[in-house]
Amino acid sequence: MKWQGRRRSSNVTDARGKRVAAGSAGLATILNVVGRSFGIKGILVLVALGFVGWQMGLLDPAAILGGGQVQDVGYQATPEEERLFDFVTVVLADTEDIWHAEFRRLGHDYAPPELVIYRDRLPTGCGMGDARMGPFYCPADRKIYIDLGFYRALESQFEAPGDFAQAYVIAHEVGHHVQNLLGISSRVSAMRGQPDYNQYSVRLELQADFLAGVWARHNQRYLDRGDIEEALRAANQIGDDAIQARTRGKVVPHAFTHGTSEQRMRWFRRGLDSGRMEAGDTFDIAYESL
């Protein structure tokens, strides 16, 4: 991807020198362990027990959360990390240019998200952000959060190297911001607790892949040979079936939340071929046909 020497977004916050108080980090770790072991039901039970303990005066939320305090500890990045930092600010600038134009074409105004670059853990509008979650978008504060260390995992653990694979990750999260601006995210969020909620989550994620493809279509003048293949390889490696096979040793379709590798590649390709944001309605298709 041709990115050096180009415009960098100003909607970026460097939080790499921030550290969360130990109590908050401990809670994040507990939730992470419970979530991995028992799923969302385990987390809900833990939250319910905590609420009962608080009501009975047995627990002090402030003590558990460490006051939510963030400390400035300073941070000296390596030259390679600084290169990644510059790279993602250029990618974000590209998404701003393209989505401003696309929203304007449809008679809407586009408000770009903020990109927060952090390390390890950081409080967000959606709770405690943890680098082990990977990059994510928070609809509550309209910010994208990423620990640049994820890109090492993308290359080594997921075997998806390349700068355009890295760009695809940002474009996918910006796709979630587009969905939030259009009111799609809130409609899906309202389905939480429904038996088929996971299916709505898959639809949301595949549409974000489609929107990343739309961005790639309008960004082709900056692409190098092989860039699209890098993005498709990344989409393939982070499909639910690929991740489950790698981590569980088996595939559990009813637990999918992002879509299969084939679906993620296909919807990215659809966005790339179409280039029109309104052509990616993943909610108006039978789930089996996604």
Ordered list of secondary-structure elements with their pairings:
Blueprint: E1 12-15, E2 18-20, H1 22-55, H2 61-65, E3 70-72, H3 79-105, E4 114-118, E5 121-124, E6 127-130, E7 136-138, E8 143-146, H4 150-156, H5 163-181, H6 184-189, H7 197-218, H8 227-237, H9 240-247, H10 261-274
Parallel strand pairs: 1-4, 4-8
Antiparallel strand pairs: 2-3, 5-6, 7-8
H/E element sequence: EEHHEHEEEEEHHHHHHH
Strand order, sheet with most strands: 1-4-8-7
* Whole-number tally of structural domains: 2
Helix content: 40-55%
Main beta sheet = 4 strands, mixed
**Strand content range:** 5-15%
Structural class: alpha/beta
Figure out the total of helices: 10
Net shape:
globular
Low-confidence stretches: 62-67
The span between the termini is 30 Å
The overall average pLDDT, rounded, is 89
Number of extended strands: 8
Calculate Rg over CA atoms. 19 Å
Question: Keywords for this structure?
Answer:
290 residues, alpha/beta, 4-stranded mixed beta sheet, two-stranded antiparallel sheet, 8 strands, 53% helix, globular
Provide a compact summary of the structure.
The chain has 290 residues and is of the alpha/beta class.
